[in-house]
Amino acid sequence: MKKSIFLGCILTILFALSGCAKVIELTDEENYLIAEYAAELLLKYDRNTDLKYNTSAVQETSTEESVTEASTTEVPTTEENLTEEQSSDSQGNEGYIGVTDVNPVAADMDASDFDLAKYADVPNVSIQYAYYMISESYPSHDKDGVFVEIQAPSGYKLLVVKFDIENQTNEPQDVDLFSKDIEYHIIINDSKSAKPMLTILIDDLYTYQYKIDSSMREEAVLLFQISDTMASRIQDAKLKVTYENESMVIQLH
């Protein structure tokens, strides 16, 4: 299923709720419900669902939920136990947060030397890391000007990782990352790892599938949801990119 159809379903719902208005203001609960519904559609129609969300992943989630239930009596507050703290606060939202413990990992290269397009066999374009930032919300819109904003719930922040996608030819190029089996993990302080959120944003790198005009550059983004405590303690950030069962760790700056 092409992302344009996927987004069309979501935006049809938004227009039905908003009439002719171009700007849609949503509460935190409405934002969450839309994101949850979008994620369900994405998982249902993604041709790569069996690869990206296999049985072992479901079993792992079930195990994490069991650990969460067992640890809700006393919530740890140390840096080493941020995973348990966040799972307890997430109220069943682990699929969007997904923070786990990891062992220290060395970067394979600096982000400025990494081209995702070459790594994932995307022809005629360059996809390179630009910067990352911590924010309480991330705004975006569609080509018709409909405003969409992802907001972090109370107690959390968004870790926003930005990319530049550049058409290196004199002809329009179709850039399809949605059909690629690419996985992303942010690694914080060599101790915590998280998967990106599933969003309905048109510039989401995970589901990016658009035509870029000749010699033009567009922006794309990965959003990660982390606790306020973790956000205030970031000293090092790396991005692990996995494609065709091979991984590359790049140092963010």
Briefly characterize the structure.
By secondary structure, this protein is an alpha+beta fold.
Would you kindly provide a written description of the structure presented here, covering whatever features stand out?
There is one protein chain. By secondary structure, the protein is of the alpha+beta class. 30% of the residues lie in helices and 31% in strands. It contains eight helices and 13 strands. The protein starts with a helix and ends with a strand.
Observed structural traits:
253 residues, alpha+beta, 6-stranded mixed sheet, 3-stranded antiparallel sheet, 8 helices, 31% strand, globular
Radius of gyration: 18 Å
What share of the residues does DSSP label as strand, in percent?
Answer: 25-35%
Assembly level? single chain
> What general form does the structure show?
globular
The span between the termini is 35 Å
Any low-confidence stretches, pLDDT <50, length ≥5? Answer: 14-23, 43-96
The spatial strand order of the largest sheet comes to: 1-9-8-12-13-2
The average pLDDT is 74
| Fraction of helical residues | 25-40%
Number of helices: 8
